[in-house]
Amino acid sequence: MHKGVGVSPGVVVGVAYRVESVLGSRELSMLEDQAQVPAEIARFDRAVEETAVELETFVQRVALELGDSAADIFKSHLQLVGDPGLAGKVHAAIEKRRLTAFSALQAVMNSYAAQFARIDHDYFRERIIDVRDVMTRISSHLSRKAGDPDDSDPAVDSPRGEEPVVLVAHEILPSQAMSLGDLPIAGIVTEVGGGTGHAAILARSRGIPAVSGVDNIMDDVVNGDHMIVDGREGHVIVRPDREATAAYRKVQREYFHYKDSLIANRDQPAVSCDGTRVELLANINNLADAQAAEQVGAAGVGLFRTEYLFLTHHDVPGEEEQYEYYRQIVQNSPGKTAVIRTLDLGGDKTVPYLGRRNEPNPFMGWRSIRIFFENPKLLTTQIRAILRAGRHGKISMLFPMITTVEELRRLNAMVKEVKATLKREGIPFAEDVKTGVMIEVPAAAVCIDAILRETDFISIGSNDLIQYLVAADRDNPKVAHLCEPLSPSIFRVIHMVLEACQRTGTPVTVCGEMAGQARSALVLFGMGLRRFSMSPAFIPQVKALLASVTTAQAERFAHHVLQLSTSEEIRAYLTERLREVSRMLEAIDYV
Ligand code: PEP
Ligand code: MG
Predict the structure, then answer these.
(1) 334-360 pLDDT, tens per residue?
(2) Ligand 1 within 6 A of 512 CB?
């Protein structure tokens, strides 16, 4: 058994499917005949040419949209593609070792990786990322050609077969997380990444169990191995014996059965036992999530993270494309209601076309709206697209990572200016799109009264708020224990923000993971929160939870929690209360 961190609850018994990368340990494949060598070399050269043309287009488009410095990254990639040394090495590997073009590329990549690993300087060592990016591009052009069946997309192959598929990967990159979105995956296991990694977000949004931080799992698993993933306990069992399989299959059946029975509440109103109404909204990352939100009976979309549209793009998506996508999102959202968050890149989510900064503390650095202030065109394009899409439903616009009132003023002024421009240009848009602020930086929480004077609504992003409040990266196992949502500090801060919103009558939502976790949801409801936004998969259970408490009961819980001094006391107290309210919900709650 391997031990990791459970990042999405549930249990699955399935078969392994490895997500390989160009750097992966996939076996090299050979051409059948020496006579195939010239054609294989020509095939590689064609893929290189196509990659160069693609990169030239990116350079031009990014330079136009974001300026020359942002295009530098692609210029350096172009140089790498055109490097005769690279072509020479790949040609030699095809010729002398009779490798397929894909395998030759992989072999060269592996030797580069070994050389880079020996470099004693972070910046240069990390340039391997650029090399890997270029190689991945070339190999994807290779795989678009008919030919060697082995030369499939190096990043994501399609799993086949009837049994549930457990994806096993070193890490899941943002673009992979999106392309995996359509596959029939029933579980995810990764070596790196934590509760806020892409694998975790993908898993939770689809309600599938996932475990991250499992050291060396790639060394122990081959495609087709039977596996058990226990997302609550963080356990992974590879090639389980018959008893373990039978035991876990039973848990899996019970879990599904219970979840299915919860889904049955989709058409019931979200109310507490004594009739207090709440709004249960969905956090979504793409169109499929919007549809999932509808299926589980969400009242609307409380958070649409637009970065996934950008992460899966080779370059900046233009205004028309964004407009079209937001229009589809709102039209497919429950009640045609969606809160669209402006781009929240940086931290762990980077795109090559914005340039890669070598920041010692990326989460404390150039992220989110901070990027926009340097690239205002990027933001005005997005605001235009959101305002235009506002005609097709009820859209609000949400700004992430606000730290100061000055930033907010600047953003509000930009929205005003964009509206004036659209008017001047005679382009139709929704005048009444509300704008809101995410409270996820402690500085903004502390100055909530000042922020409230200049915004229409608030959304509390507890995921980031927690890690900034306790100054601990939740993906760093050494300090992750400090990122505890059931803590006195986080509940006090949220209470302060909720009170300020209640005083001023400002609509407020909690859209971090806490909103979907039973113990914290009880407290938030008791503090007066009436709008919860969460991964669609959690909506049925939060609805069931709230239906089993009275408002007065939850208020008592919240009042008591605010008197406690330690996380340990809070956890013990809430576990007891949850057990009284619903034993089954306690069993499937994961934090
Ligand atoms: C948050 O920080 O709580 C949040 C909802 O935003 P994200 O998880 O996308 O950072
Ligand atoms: Mg956040």
Answers:
(1) 999 999 999 998 776 666 667 666 777
(2) yes
